[in-house]
Amino acid sequence: MSQTLKLExxxxxxxxxxxxxxxxxxxxxxxxxLSGLAADIVLIDINQARVEGEVADLGHAAHFTHTRVxxxxxxxxxxxxxxxxxxxxxxxxxxxxxxxxxxNHALFASIIPPIAAxxxxxxxxxxxTNPADVLTHAAVRLSGFPPYRxxxxxxxxxxxxxRRELGAHFGISPRSVHAFVVGEHGDSQLPxxxxxxxxxxxxxxxxxxxxxxxxxxxxxxxxxxxxxxxxTIIERKGxxxxxxxxVIVAILEPIVKNADAIMTVSQVGTYAGVEDVALSMPCxxxxxxxxxxxxLPLDERETELLRRSAESIRAMIMSVAAPE
Length: 324
Ligand SMILES: NC(=O)C1=CN([C@@H]2O[C@H](COP(=O)(O)OP(=O)(O)OC[C@H]3O[C@@H](n4cnc5c(N)ncnc54)[C@H](O)[C@@H]3O)[C@@H](O)[C@H]2O)C=CC1
Ligand SMILES: CC(=O)C(=O)O
What we know:
By secondary structure, the protein is α/β, with parallel strands linked by helices. The protein folds into two domains: 150 residues, NAD(P)-binding Rossmann-like Domain (Rossmann fold, 3-Layer(aba) Sandwich), CATH 3.40.50.720; 164 residues, Lactate dehydrogenase/glycoside hydrolase, family 4, C-terminal (L-2-Hydroxyisocaproate Dehydrogenase, Chain A, domain 2, Alpha-Beta Complex), CATH 3.90.110. The protein is 46% helix and 19% strand. It has ten helices and 13 strands. The strands form four sheets. It has a six-stranded parallel β-sheet, sandwiched between helices. A three-stranded antiparallel β-sheet has the order 11-12-13. Strand 1, helix 2 and strand 2 form a beta-alpha-beta unit. The chain is globular, with a radius of gyration of 19 Å. The site of 1,4-dihydronicotinamide adenine dinucleotide (NAI) has 32 residues, from helix 2 and helix 4. Its EC number is 1.1.1.27. InterPro entries: L-lactate/malate_DH (IPR001557), L-lactate_DH (IPR011304), L-lactate_DH_AS (IPR018177), Lactate/malate_DH_C (IPR022383), Lactate/malate_DH_N (IPR001236), Lactate_DH/Glyco_Ohase_4_C (IPR015955), NAD(P)-bd_dom_sf (IPR036291). GO terms for molecular function: L-lactate dehydrogenase (NAD+) activity. It catalyses: (S)-lactate + NAD(+) = pyruvate + NADH + H(+).
């Protein structure tokens, strides 16, 4: 079967609903349109004029694809393979993700119940709205879905950013760098340095074989640029959209193709002894959702940093929790 026919077969009757037709939502719709993964893309936004304008514009791009783009309502979540949540306030220059928690948690309390009520029993929620880990936790609680059916985009974006930094440092393609960021999609994230490798060699060994010094300070600088990337970009252009849109489509692909791909995404669980929290670890993603099947053998220092990351997310979750 040709690649085009294979993609059309995978897209089949696949419907994707995007809630929030702002910058992230519409860039995701465009990336999804070009990917050929979906037959039907539905955009929902509280701002009806905006969603109509975006759908008309995207509809012209859709002319060159086999995908239909339209506006809709929560009733369209019925039969959706995934509902991608990008609605909510974004960071202004200098603002942190936790500063969005009260406003976006209140928004989730109003939109997740109707989305969940309309969705099908196998619909997966993908959460991008910030702070992504806290809202992934909120989406599980408010939807009643099992945790594997709620996937936070989490550190999938930070992992691509770290790989780009390391690829530039080592002079190889980012896709040939096997490294990932775990924990919070935010300031307490950490690279799993003890497991990072190139061609199966840990980074110090790779440097030894390549006849170059392993520069710990430069590794830390790569981690810092990764952690600060959103601040740096928002300072200059007021938002981030292309990176996250591509990450969302990369998460949707193994869902549609039932591909068991491993990505660092956020899920509710117990991490480093902290219960009932959401954060990112490598998970297997397929048509049923995301599953962390193999615990990560982090070293002692990384485990302690992960525990601190989990504690800080847990504190944010408690700050918006409704009293029992
Ligand atoms: N997880 C990640 O890596 C990233 C997350 N984000 C987050 O994504 C979110 C969206 O960011 P942008 O698209 O830049 O913001 P934006 O302001 O461009 O779009 C937000 C959209 O949400 C809509 N909205 C608000 N209330 C709604 C409701 N009740 N129902 C439906 N739609 C509603 C607004 O009308 C607006 O169109 C923010 O929380 C931002 O921080 C952004 C980039 C990366
Ligand atoms: C805004 C945001 O969360 C990011 O680009 O990482």
